[in-house]
Amino acid sequence: MISVGVIGLGYWGPNLVRNFNLSPRARIAWLCDVNQARLDEIGLQCPAAARTTTADDVLADAAVDAVAIATPVATHYALVRAALQAGKHVLVEKPLAGSVAEGTELLQQAAQAGRTLLVDHVFLYSPAVRKMADLVRTGEVGDILFFDSVRINLGLFQHDVNVMWDLAPHDLSIIDHLIERAPQSVVAVGASHAGNRLQDVAYLHLDYGDNLLASVHVNWLSPVKVRHFLMGGSRRSVLYNELDLSERLKVYDRGIDVSKDPKGIREVLVSYRSGDVVSPRLDTSEPLRYLVEHFAECIENGVRPVSGADQGVRIVRILEAAQQSLSEGGKRVNI
After folding, report:
1. Does 171 share its domain with 274?
2. pLDDT (tens digit per residue) in 41-56
């Protein structure tokens, strides 16, 4: 079994602990958090695990094969770097790092060390996104025309990054996974309302070239929680609604058909297509469970991670460019 240390037991760490506990391929050897009370509370779920308030204790244990890092973004670079230098495989919460330079160095270090570095872009492991990828790769969607995502709710406010760095990686990683290419440019606007200079509302507009556009709206101030991800295609369109437990995915045979006007009166004719709406049956397993099992498989068999450090760097590159655009009042920034 893979011996794992979990570093960071705040919001996301306990979810990692729960799923590693459920995995038949791993055991939790260490729990680490700077908050002793939190450490003792989560420690009740892992009575056999050692506890510490210092990450160095986890990394110094030669019996530990891998670490899962769920700490603030500003700490990712130093912790991942130290873990790789200690010979550990690493699962790190998104985003990979706070800059492209840091992320690129971690990517190179993991490759040189021959260690798995997997970024917790958890939605890539959801049955809904896996089905969307199948629909794209089998041609059911046709040419992808646009993405439109809304990820809004009331809180959870972060103290070291703005709403864009906190929430947008989810949708950006899904788009990256579905089309496997980077955008050419980004425009971002946002505003801060909490007095901490961190934007709590942001809009990103991305141009992927070839008339493919994406819009990402993230918000910590919305009184309602919305999780809509819409992919528009020339043949089918797909709506992923994370909050709809019965029909998370809907495939629409609705759109337009464009043809030449045989009489030449108009240059083109646009006709509207209104067909069936299908909701595919999906597995109800937790995405994080799939991610943990995939992490174990990567370690055991040398499998290339679905959400590896290469994708992590691509997402940070978009965020860095979007931050520049935001800082410059919505200026278009090439990527």
Report:
1. yes
2. 999 999 999 999 999 9
